[in-house]
Amino acid sequence: MGDERGNNAALMNAIDRYRAALLLAPRMERPLDWAETQQALGAALSRLGKRESGTERLEAAITAYRAALEEITRTRSPDQWATVQHDLGVALRILGERENGTARLEEAVVALRAALEELTRERAPHDWAMSQMSLGNALATLGLFESGTERFEDAVKAYRSALAEVTREHPREWTMIQSNLGYSLLILGLRGTGTERLEEAIAVLRAALAETTRERPLDWAEIQCNLGAALGGTGGT
C-alpha cells in the first residue's frame, strides 16, 4: 500500500510495526530475524524519506541498514548482503543530494560497488543492471560537486552497462536509464570541448522521449529540458 499506492500513512504504520517486531525478535536470541526486520524497516523508512523534504527518515533508514549488515554478512548470506548494500547506497545517495558535502555520496559509491561484487551479471542480470544504474546515479550526483569529468565518465560507463541488460521490453526502466545517461553526457559535453558528447546526449535523450509521454509529465519535462540544453550547446535544432 505504501510503496505502490503512495500511501504515506500505510508506510508510517509499517514502520511502527517493524519497530514493534524488533522487540519480539531480540538480536541475542534471533539474530537473523532481527537483521531482516532491520532491513525491512530500512526499506520503509527510505521510501517515506524519499517523499519528504527533510533527512530524518533517510538517516534512520541508513542506521537500520547498517544494523542489518552486522548480522547479514557477506560470508553468511552474500545475495542478501548485496541487496542491503544496494539499498544502503541508494539511501546514502538521496541523503547526499540534500546535504552540502560529498561524504554521503562517497559512502554511497562504496556501498554500491560492494553490492556489484556479489550481484554479478551472470548470477542476477536484472539486479546487476539496476545496481549499475544506482551506481551511475551516485557517481553523477557526486560529479555535480566537482569540477572535473571523471565521475561523469564513470557514470556513463555504469549506465551503458545497465542498458546491456535493460532493453525497451522494460520501457520504464529503460527510459529512466536513458534519461540519466543523456544527462551525464550533457554535462560532459558542457564541461569539455567539441560537440561529440552533446550529440550523443541528443540522440540518447530523443530515444528516451520516444518512450515517454506527457502522461508522465515530470519525466517528460526533465528530458525535454536536458534535450534543449544539449541542442543549445551544439547550436542544433
Question: Can you describe what's shown?
Answer:
This protein has 10 helices and no strands. The chain has helices at about 10-25, 30-50, 55-70, 80-100, 105-120, 125-145, 150-165, 170-190, 195-210, 215-235. The chain is an all-alpha fold.
Tell me the major beta sheet: none
Structural class of the secondary elements? mainly alpha
Which ranges are low-confidence, i.e. pLDDT below 50, for 5 or more consecutive residues? none
The run of helices and strands is: HHHHHHHHHH
User: Which descriptor suits the 3D outline?
Assistant: elongated
What is the CA-CA span between the terminal residues?
Answer: 44 Å
Provide the residue-averaged pLDDT: 93
- Overall radius of gyration: 19 Å
Q: What percent of residues adopt helix (DSSP H or I)?
A: over 70%
What is this entry, summarized?
The protein has 237 residues and is mainly α.
